[in-house]
Amino acid sequence: MSTAAGQIFAASSSDGDGGGFGFVFLLSGFLFYGAIYLRYRNVDKRHKHESETQATLQNVQEHDAFVTSKKGLTNRSMSGANNTAVRGMLRKFF
Amino acid sequence: MENIDPDIPQPVEADATNPVSADAVPPVTKENEPRVVLTDADAKDGLAKCARCGATEIALNVATGMLRCGFCRFEWTADNAMEAFNLNGDISGLTGIVVGSGSSDIVPTTEEVLTFKCSACGAEVVIDTNHSTQARCHWCRNTLSMNQQVDNGAVPDMILPFSVEKSTAVERIAKFVGKRKFFAHPTFRAEFNAENVMGVYLPYMVVDINAHARLSGQGEHQTRSYTVKVGDKDQTRYDADLYDVVREFDMHVNDLTVESSSDRIDQNTSQNSNNIINTIMPFDVENSVRYDSNYLAGFTSERRDSNLDQLSPIAHTQAEDVARHRVNSTLTFYDRGVRWSEEEVDVRGQRWVSAYLPVWLYSYQQRKSNGKTFLHYVAVNARTGETMGSVPLHQSKLLLVSGIVQLVGTVVGLVLVAVGI
């Protein structure tokens, strides 16, 4: 089994880059600081209005039309996907 | 209401002979002009007496959520606000803008200090509505309550009584901080006393929205993933089908809740910790009762200072967020995501009600070495018990420990990178 882009070995969701775990350790001090800061100050916490507010949808109309197939994409998720975006946050970090 | 003698007259605030309902809503006079539901139609200022003994020493019994006379222990409750004002009406039939009279625009020129004539002895008593809606007559010791809505936002449409007792709040705050003591600032650790918690009614706007939404864009569905060899490394590649996606629907948002105090709206976490108070939402606002300032006895309150015009943009943006997230249940096929390019949310009807919601608040003013101060909160939702807080950090201790972790991590990381793990 092969493609023009390269040889396919197996279907997998792994990035397959060696040494990734080691690089996490190289950032361990920064990660530790960030984790403790968030645990004590909780600056990332907010009311999740988008999911915690009661709402009902009615008369839902769905229109889906196939456009094209894409091959050899490098990103796990769609570029520019915004269906989980939240814009009504009152929280500001800066 | 249980255990009430039928011979005892019912309290005035529970007067069912003069209910305020949607029928009382006046017709629209101009396009886009809010229709006002009079939520203080039968409210009276002055002496609110116990129906059994006539005392004015009335306060909330947190254990039962009812008002209790301090002398004869008679208990009663105000009407449920949602039923009294028909605020639970069908959202699908909501058109235009409906507001409770306590949500009307604040008039800046309104005097904040009001003078009451005591209904018991005739003395004149001053109430500063900036700080309280109750005062005790200095001559006859009766409590005077202000329940009618003045135009300065001091009296809301409804109030949600405390139901979490102070002892529970103290326990939760102590537990929350107790888990965060190691890196807490030493001054905070020395001064922390959970008993200093205060019960505060904070002002919010509760909004129902009837909207029609149309979202259009593109979505991707993964058909395959595989590994390719690029140089010496393995990399994952994905195949996907691209679709044009449109979703059109009616949406009914119930009890969207936004802060209506300008101080609380500002949630810049580098300047304040208001996000902590925001986090403990939502409240069970459907259990709110008609405003009665006797519910405030023993608690403090903060006045609303933001109008509907200022709060509409954030409420509508949050409603759009709700629409975007709710419709995801119809998009499970698009496992790589959907990119909406057009989002039209047409708000056809909206209903605004101002409310006092209960919070147990522990606050701590941190004085920093540069002379600046920062106010930390630990807040408990006084209905659900949800607790969140901000604890001042001992920065030098955290930096020292982080440095040690970094040192050890660097050594371990270099070894792992060298062996290719």
Give an account of the 3D structure:
- By secondary structure, chain A is an alpha+beta fold.
- Chain A contains three helices and two strands, in the order H-H-H-E-E.
- Chain B has 421 residues and is α+β, with helices and mostly antiparallel strands.
- Chain B has helices at 81-84, 166-178, 186-191, 262-265, 274-279, 308-326, 395-419, and strands at residues 35-37, 46-47, 58-61, 66-69, 75-76, 96-100, 113-117, 124-128, 134-136, 143-145, 158-159, 198-230, 233-259, 267-268, 289-290, 300-301, 338-367, 373-381, 387-389.
- In chain B, strands 1, 6, 11, 12, 13, 15, 16, 17, 18 and 19 form a ten-stranded mixed beta sheet that branches. Chain B has a three-stranded antiparallel beta sheet with strand order 2-10-9, with no helix packed on it. Chain B has a three-stranded antiparallel beta sheet with strand order 3-4-5, with no helix packed on it.
- The termini of chain B are far apart.
- The model of chain B is unreliable at 1-29 (pLDDT under 50).
- Chains A and B meet through helix 1, helix 2, helix 3, strand 1 and strand 2 of A and strand 12, strand 13, strand 14, helix 5 and helix 6 of B.
Taking pLDDT < 50 over at least 5 consecutive residues as the criterion, the unreliable ranges of chain B are: 1-29
Number of strands of chain B: 19
Unreliable stretches covering 5 or more consecutive residues of chain A: 1-18
Shape summary of chain A = flat
Rg of chain A over CA atoms, rounded to whole Å, is 21 Å
- Tally the helices of chain B: 7
- Strand pairing plus helix content of chain B: what structural class? alpha+beta
Helicity of chain A, in percent? 25-40%
Q: What is the helix tally of chain A?
A: 3
Average pLDDT of chain B works out at: 85
Which chains have the largest interface? A-B, 83 and 104 residues
| Strand residues, percent of chain B | 25-35%
What is the N-to-C succession of helices and strands of chain B? Answer: EEEEEHEEEEEEHHEEHEHEEHEEEH
What is the H/E order of chain A?
A: HHHEE
What is the SS-derived class of chain A?
A: alpha+beta
Distance between the termini of chain B: 68 Å
User: Tell me, what's the shape of chain B?
Assistant: flat
Q: For the CA atoms, what is the radius of gyration of chain B?
A: 27 Å
Overall mean confidence score, pLDDT of chain A: 80
Q: Whole-Å distance between the termini of chain A? A: 51 Å
Oligomeric composition of the shown chains: heterodimer
